[in-house]
Amino acid sequence: MTRFSWFRSPLFSVIAITLMTACVPHSTSSDGTSLVGTEWRLAELHDAPSTKAPGERQPNIRFEEDLRLSGFTGCNNVSGRYTRQGTELGVDGPLAMTRMACLDPQLNAQEQRLAAVLEAMNRYTIAADLLTLYGPEGRLARFQAVSE
């Protein structure tokens, strides 16, 4: 066996292809869940479970094809524009937010942290029905896809 003959082996080819495709960024998970057009309900914020809002509507975010994002923080609606290239994701300009009084101190704190996360996010991953947002310091938040 020559010094580099293992490069020609079928096993090397399979391993190389597997490793290369694992590193390719995806905006859609293997089950078909897409970043765009999906309602993403907040599950975790800075490794802590989401605080539930009163009523049916829960904190969420949605990314649209026209590069607009919209969501609900638990107290207020949020909207703005975003940029995306591969798995890089960020807001484009300031976010707009309604100014309803948030009487629950936990929801108020969560709203402020969620707005800060959206401003700080710089990349994302989707695995199954989970969207994870990352910033310069690591994982910021996790969202679960809402079945329609």
Describe what is shown at a glance.
By secondary structure, the protein is an alpha+beta fold. The protein has helices spanning 10-22, 105-120; strands at 39-45, 48-49, 60-63, 68-72, 77-85, 88-91, 96-97, 123-127, 130-135, 138-145. Helix content is 20%, strand content 35%.
Q: How many distinct beta strands?
A: 10
Shape: globular
Q: What's the SSE pattern?
A: HEEEEEEEHEEE
Strand content: 35-45%
Q: Please state the CA-atom Rg, rounded to the nearest Å.
A: 19 Å
Low-confidence stretches: 12-26
* Distance linking N and C termini: 58 Å
* Mean pLDDT across all amino acids: 84
- Structure class: alpha+beta
Please outline the major beta sheet: 10 strands, antiparallel
Keywords:
148 residues; globular; 2 helices; 10-stranded antiparallel sheet; alpha+beta
Question: How would you sum up this structure, described in words?
Answer:
By secondary structure, the chain is of the alpha+beta class. 20% of the residues lie in helices and 35% in strands. Strands 1, 2, 3, 4, 5, 6, 7, 8, 9 and 10 form a 10-stranded antiparallel sheet that branches. A hairpin with a 2-residue loop joins strand 5 and strand 6. The longest helix has 16 residues, at 105-120. It is globular, with a radius of gyration of 19 Å. The N and C termini lie far apart (58 Å). 23% of the residues are buried. The model is unreliable at 12-26 (pLDDT under 50).
